[in-house]
């Protein structure tokens, strides 16, 4: 038996549809189901303020220079400061990156 190419293909004019999902609803749904963690910067008396700001900027790409300065100042004055809030895997990555610059950092669940 010889099959024609068209006989085993899906019927014509039958298309797959995808449900329309509002982006805001999707993002809200994801954040509700993913456990969030604070990335915390700890003050130290070893690193210069400039070094800490540079470490923040190179480790956490979502921070602006102004945000990095504010986080550094908060940690300097209060002993620690929240750098960002994100899913656990990302928080671990940011913490580890900061630690490669010899900057004290930790994570904790929100």
Summarize this entry quickly.
By secondary structure, the protein is an alpha+beta fold. It contains four helices and three strands. It has a three-stranded antiparallel β-sheet with strand order 2-1-3.
Named CATH topology: Ribosomal Protein L30, Chain: A
Biggest β-sheet: strands ordered side by side in the sheet:
2-1-3
Averaged pLDDT: 86
Tell me which CATH architecture applies here: 2-Layer Sandwich
Q: Please provide the count of β strands.
A: 3
Write a structural description.
This protein has 110 residues and is of the alpha+beta class. The chain has one domain (25-109): Ribosomal Protein L30, Chain: A. It contains 4 helices and 3 strands; from the N terminus they run H-E-H-H-E-H-E. Strands 2-1-3 form a 3-stranded antiparallel sheet. Helix 2 (49-59) crosses helix 3 (65-78) and helix 2 (49-59) packs antiparallel against helix 4 (88-100). The longest helix has 14 residues, at 65-78. It is elongated, with a radius of gyration of 24 Å.
């Amino acid at each position: 038996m010889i099959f024609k190419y068209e006989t085993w293909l899906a019927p014509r004019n039958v298309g797959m549809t995808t449900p329309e999902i509002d982006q805001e609803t999707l993002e809200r749904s994801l954040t509700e189901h993913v456990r969030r963690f604070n990335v915390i910067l700890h003050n130290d008396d070893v690193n210069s303020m400039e070094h800490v700001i540079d470490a923040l900027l190179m480790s956490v790409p979502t921070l602006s220079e102004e945000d990095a300065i504010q986080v550094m100042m908060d940690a300097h004055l209060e002993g620690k400061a929240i750098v960002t809030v994100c899913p656990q895997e990302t928080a671990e990555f940011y913490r580890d990156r900061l630690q490669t610059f010899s900057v004290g950092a930790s994570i904790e669940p929100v």
